[in-house]
Specification:
Layout: H1 2-20, E1 34-37, H2 48-56, E2 64-67, H3 78-96, E3 101-106, H4 108-119, H5 121-125, E4 127-133, E5 147-151, E6 164-167, H6 175-178, H7 180-191, E7 205-214, E8 219-220, E9 225-231, E10 245-248, E11 254-261, E12 265-273, E13 276-282, E14 289-296, E15 316-324, E16 334-337, E17 340-341, E18 354-360, H8 375-378, E19 383-387, E20 398-404, E21 413-418, E22 425-431
Parallel strand pairs: 1-2, 1-3, 3-4, 4-5, 5-6, 7-14, 13-22, 15-22, 18-19
Antiparallel strand pairs: 7-8, 7-11, 9-10, 9-12, 12-13, 15-18, 16-17, 16-20, 20-21
Length: 436
């Protein structure tokens, strides 16, 4: 038994060593570094599926980054965003030995990046290709940089002059960022050839790292502690009393790397104090990921501060980087919380572009009312709120959250959380944005 354990540890160590020091580290690489810039209320998490697809097609994970900022511009100015991007590009060029970087931006980020590329010839000269994802139009290619513009549902008149313009009218605003079709388009634009695959190529051992940040400012959750546990997918219960890893979160929010199993379910617990814990559950990480984003807020602050809490009910946030459509019938999405289907035309119409759902007992009356969304959340871009009474229990009985994504031939995605009271516990479940 001891020999088997030693062999297992050695095998993991060999894989970890290979992942920590990728071939050609610090030398010229055949692929340029890739930088993603998000839009309003976004983060690097919107690009993590595409990053996994890139590494599955030969890109180095350490040369794929997201440039994050506060899209309300209360923490930073656009000029500070640009200066930070200058430093990021110079660092990646030095690290990779590449001549230029490839740059993608989404929504609000496209307006920022178009201005950035036009701001100086020196900046534009460091970018080989620019991808404009469902954002600002332009009469010409920004800064003269070769441009691919990808457009989702909406007016087919939108375009960038001189660019390659691609239209996916069946895709929503955030879905344009994360879809396999978009990946195939920008991969060929970057490399001159089609990708080997658009699937997420699984790995037995996954290397995870990322940031724990305040939503939506993307400021690090400074002062919090984050612990990672493997959980039983049937109950959401932790398999061990002690965490597999623990990190003190600093001003930049960074943590990792953490070595895990590709098919395992993990809980990321952000502990603000001994009485307030924010639990986040992801679907299994089937491939290494350096863009994991754990979104949180300080207790009682931010958007989460609007949630009514109590000892009798559970509070949930349900995220997916692909819009939830509650008004499209068989062509839309379904979402069950504790056996109740909660999406409808009132709280998740296609036009609302919902990617985040706050679910709790509004009014703390023990009654579920899905006839209208919770206004304080529905009025926010990309968010909605649903009044669902989810009873809490001292034993933390299992609460299944089940998604049937559109386009998935009826396949179900399931995440289970324990029914702990919202007075001390917050829960986020993060569903994959791809099917399969």
């Amino acid at each position: 038994m001891l020999v088997r354990r030693l062999l297992a540890v050695m095998a993991v160590a060999v894989v970890a060593s290979a992942m920590a020091a990728p071939p050609g580290h610090g030398a010229t690489h055949r692929h340029r570094p890739v930088i993603f810039v998000h839009g309003f209320s976004g983060s690097g998490g919107q690009f993590e599926t595409q990053a996994r697809r890139l590494t599955g097609n030969g890109y180095r994970a350490d040369l794929i980054e997201a440039h994050e900022y506060d899209s309300l511009f209360e923490v930073n100015t656009p000029e500070q965003v640009y200066a930070g991007l200058d430093r990021r590009i110079d660092r990646l060029l030095k690290k990779s030995g590449a001549d230029k970087v490839d740059l993608l931006a989404h929504s609000l980020g496209t307006a920022l990046m178009q201005a950035y590329l036009r701001s100086s010839p020196e900046r534009a000269a460091k970018v080989a290709h620019y991808v404009n994802l469902d954002g600002a139009t332009s009469p010409d290619q920004p800064g003269g940089v070769p441009t691919l513009a990808v457009w989702g549902e909406g007016s087919p008149e939108r375009r960038i002059g001189g660019a390659k313009n691609v239209y996916f009218p069946d895709q929503a605003h955030t879905e344009v960022v994360t879809s396999a079709k978009t990946f195939a388009a920008f991969f060929e634009f970057f490399t001159g050839r089609a990708p080997r695959t658009t699937a997420i190529v699984p790995e037995a051992v996954v290397r995870l790292s990322g940031r724990t940040v305040l939503f939506p400012s993307n400021v690090g959750a400074d002062g919090a502690r984050m612990e990672i546990f493997e959980v039983d997918p049937r109950t959401g219960a932790r398999k061990t009393r002690r965490p597999l890893a623990a990190y003190r979160i600093g001003p930049d929010g960074r943590w990792g790397p953490f070595l895990g199993r590709g098919g395992a379910h993990y809980e990321f617990a952000v502990i603000w104090d001994e009485g307030t814990v924010h639990h986040t559950y992801f679907q299994p990480f089937r491939r290494s990921d350096a863009l994991v984003r754990v979104l949180t807020s300080r207790p009682g602050e931010g958007v989460s501060g609007r949630v009514e809490t109590g000892d009798r009910h559970v509070s949930l946030v349900i995220n997916r980087q692909r819009e939830w459509w509650g008004d499209q019938g068989a062509g839309g999405d379904a979402l069950w919380i504790n056996g109740r289907q909660v999406l409808n035309a009132a709280n998740a119409p296609r036009t609302k572009r919902v990617i985040g759902i706050f679910a709790y007992d509004a009014g703390r009356d023990g009654v579920t009312d899905l006839s209208a969304p919770i206004p304080s959340f529905f009025e926010q871009p990309f968010l909605t709120g649903v009044d669902v009474f989810i009873p809490a229990s001292a034993a933390g009985r299992p609460i299944p959250v089940v998604s049937r994504p559109r386009g998935g031939s009826g396949a179900l995605d399931v995440l289970v959380v324990p029914a702990l009271p919202s007075s001390k516990h917050r829960f986020t479940v993060q569903f994959d944005d791809y099917v399969g």
